[in-house]
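Loading example: each entry is read as two labelled lines plus one structure line.
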Amino acid sequence: MKAAILTIGDELLIGQVVDTNSSWIAQQLNLAGIKVERKISVGDDAEVIREELERLLRFVDFIFITGGLGPTKDDITKNTLVDFFEDHLVMHEESLQNVKRIFKNAGREPNAANIQQAMQPLKAKIFVNLNGTASGMCFEKENKVVVSMPGVPFEMKSMLLNQVIPLLAERFQKVHIIHKTICTQGIGESFVAEKIEDIESSLPDHIKLAYLPSVGQLKLRLSAYGVAAEQEVNEYVNKIVERISENVFGFGEATLQEVIGALLKQQNKTLSTAESCTGGYVSHLITSVPGSSAYYKGGVIAYSNEIKIQELGVNQQVLAEFGAVSKQVVEQMANGILKVTGSDFAIATSGIAGPDGGSDEKPVGTVWIAVAGKGGMFSKDFKFGDNRERNIIRASLTALSILRRKFLITDKE
Amino acid sequence: MKAAILTIGDELLIGQVVDTNSSWIAQQLNLAGIKVERKISVGDDAEVIREELERLLRFVDFIFITGGLGPTKDDITKNTLVDFFEDHLVMHEESLQNVKRIFKNAGREPNAANIQQAMQPLKAKIFVNLNGTASGMCFEKENKVVVSMPGVPFEMKSMLLNQVIPLLAERFQKVHIIHKTICTQGIGESFVAEKIEDIESSLPDHIKLAYLPSVGQLKLRLSAYGVAAEQEVNEYVNKIVERISENVFGFGEATLQEVIGALLKQQNKTLSTAESCTGGYVSHLITSVPGSSAYYKGGVIAYSNEIKIQELGVNQQVLAEFGAVSKQVVEQMANGILKVTGSDFAIATSGIAGPDGGSDEKPVGTVWIAVAGKGGMFSKDFKFGDNRERNIIRASLTALSILRRKFLITDKE
């Protein structure tokens, strides 16, 4: 079974909004055994929407649409679908009650546009939106299915998972799609390619390897379609992991912060942070994991030198002699926060994120990272690039990776 | 002039990667006066790529392609384009020198696959990639242009801005596209719609209003195509801003953290933070702005109660009596960090981000926010939702918004 995803909204075509819906939908459909063949974004334009529907229905079984269902005048998806399927709108009692409920909860009265949202196509199956006023719709024609959902991500997600997929599940003729993803940090794409060149050359035609670099990380994905190749894929995964084991921190959707959280919990250890150039991003990553308060005590954002001295006990002379971006200072920061919090491990960062503040000796992108624990201290300088946002992310992920490799998994190695 | 964007890669169709390239390209093309009509994502499949090229060239003047130019075996874009344009590959000396240069800088030797990347289509104009080994290409046929760029965002961005747009600029017959965006915080979509209902109804046909909600923020965009309507659009913008002025923090691509940074700089004031539930996200937002060290001193991530007491001077009895998520504690946190850092303003947050930790009295999503300054203290509790990630973002943006509205722009009002 094949699907297409059609996202609707002028904001997508002028680049004001990044379309995160379609990748999330694609993930869910993959899990449900549906292969996505194409993703299309079009504006709020009835003629273009019709044209894409006609075309896509020639080669896919399902079309999943998001966007254009709001109460405001720029939202035309519902009327366009009603025309396309030669249907007409009637008041949908359940949707009306839902709109009234939502406004009652907000202590307000729905206006005419909100009531109009409860008008729904007669022939469609309607999905009442528990998180908003825009209902979803499912049309069928000649054994093809067109689903329309709201564009607000969390409304759409709940509707797809809890209403749409359960309704359609029995129609899905599952094909076997296997994806295995290896998550790495601290190693580049072409370097990996060289290390595993012979493995890659030996892959059979039905197994595909993809390199997926993102800021500070590299994922390797092995995919097999249509064949019951799970064991075969796993064997290749193992071969690859063996070559680059130091840099592999997990599989699938694993994040470094989750992996570290799980290791700290398992070992009953605590962590704290002393951040300068990363400005809170390390702690944000750590605390983005539910339950992180079990192992993360907190930290200091030592953006100014005063705070480095006063809160972390960095020595003023050392600071003057070596500068804030130095081995000496970052180690004192790590030791300082260990002392303040009494945690088992500490991460410290100090660098020049950019775009300004660099010098010949310490150009933009220079970052010192220290990780301290009862097992000692590890510190190292890195030269990242000249982009502030990327430097903050790369430094933060590198710091987490050092904690994992040098302190949390050492027993195993 | 009309364009389409074609992004290529299996990872886009299985939802492993969010396509940020196409929205960025769309923005840049808009600025250059080119309207994007459609965005398409397809897999690494030569037949599908050909089919989309043929179709899109029937109704657009330009196609911008990203992805599939890497050295690895899953990258087929170059060969597909060579077939499509009935061209053939020859060694491109400049690209070869570039590949050698990049490997030399990394202290390594290019392998055969890397050398192969320097083979380029004879008829195309080649863009040497200063940030990577994959060159870009520009094909022309019957007055239509097809540009192929690497998929790695920062390589593509540099190539589009510095090489592609300058080459094509003289071909762009600019149409007048005007977008004006109003950025708001702390006010919902339907609430705004009600407040400006009469203004919206009075909009002429050639001016479109779009509501663009994202987590913790709402943007309103007025657009006009094809008419020299700038002044008219500005008048509507002013009318709308007047109705919701309290919540408007900026225009266009403004971020709350930039606006606050500019106000602090202007007023020569400093800021510090004491974060519990937001776990570093407030400080990350603040420090994501270049030059923020001029006004941001730093802060404490007081994730554990110990740190709240020890580093911020929160009273142990008060903590026991009212709990960490309380007016009393969050105000003590704000006062505490003011004292520690000597800054002019302080932001403090304490709440239950979820998914666990809620109670009947204080459900998940309850967040106390305090902002303190020499002008006094403002604190308030909020009930956000049940999603951890969204709660952290909403609380952080709300805190920045309170600082702006209650402390930084009070003189003006």
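The first strand of chain B starts at residue 2 and ends at 8.
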